[in-house]
Amino acid sequence: MTSPALAERLDGLLFFPVTAFDADGSVDLGAFRAHVRQGVEAGAAAAFVCCGTGEFHALSPEEFGACVAAAVEETAGRVPVVAGAGYGTALALQYAAIAERSGADGLLAMPPYLVVADQDGLLRHYTALAEGTGLDVIVYQRDNAVFTPETVVALARVPNIIGLKDGVGDLDLMQRIISTVRTELPGQDFLYFNGLPTAELTGLAYRGIGVSLYSSAVYAFSPEIALAFHRALTAGDDATVNKLLDGFYRPLVNLRNQGRGYAVSLVKAGVRLRGLDVGEVRPPLSEPAPAHVKELAELIERGLALVGDH
Questions:
Q1: pTM above threshold 0.90
Q2: Residue 163: beta bridge partners?
Q3: Residues forming beta bridges with residue 193, ordered by sequence position
Q4: Residues 58, 48: contact at Cβ < 8 Å?
Q5: pLDDT for 199-257, tens place per residue?
Q6: Which residues is 106 bridged to in the sheet?
Q7: Which residues are annotated as a binding site for pyruvate?
Q8: Which residues contact 275 (CB under 8 A, 6 or more apart)?
Q9: Which residues participate in pyruvate binding (predicted)?
Q10: Residues annotated catalytic, as ranges
């Protein structure tokens, strides 16, 4: 069991690489390796591969295993590799087994496919996944998997469930979850992550309830901006935080909200704009409109200029 080791290593900015595809739509492992390598060398604390930004939903089991193995080779133990796992319990266990064989350090457990379950059903699903793998598990709260504080306490009692990533953004709920786990399991280290799209926009709010870890989609295409923001947020330099929020992150979120799936396709466009051809998104996602890609390019330049001023 590697729970303490992984939990202790998840301290810093978390990198969610995109999955690279060739012109014919097949996985481009060479470009993917380069993307992972660049992200780690720039200063990421962990690589979360084949997750939401990495189009987990669009990958076959064979492609998933090849990408996880490639990421493990490229990181070479410098940072932990966490892989996505999802769908129903049976398939989630299969993806977990592939990730474990491929050398991953942990799993990000996506919501179950399609169904809206009650709390007991969700608890049974994630418990079965955790008990069926030797890897550490971070549960991703979003969409059809939203938990009561009591359910999170029950999840936290499972030895290799080490944290909760929140993609809902209900701070009242998150505060109650944190308070209840702290009360019911005193002294237990349980990790919390801000997992909202463009998590930097809500970084100050999450910091206020004690959640400092977050996933940065911006890091995939502009580690310079993402790291500058992370340093400022960690140091309590709210002037720099607000400068980047006003000049870069808020306009980026406004742009992201212009199209469905832009939380992934716009990130991939950003990676291409910075010089690495990682291909287009797979269906059912669509590419962003050319005008929006142009706006993204201008935003990246503005963000880099703001970091230069900082």
A1: yes
A2: 138, 191
A3: 165, 213
A4: no
A5: 999 999 999 999 999 999 999 999 999 999 999 999 999 999 999 999 999 999 999 99
A6: 82, 136
A7: 53
A8: none
A9: 53
A10: 140, 165
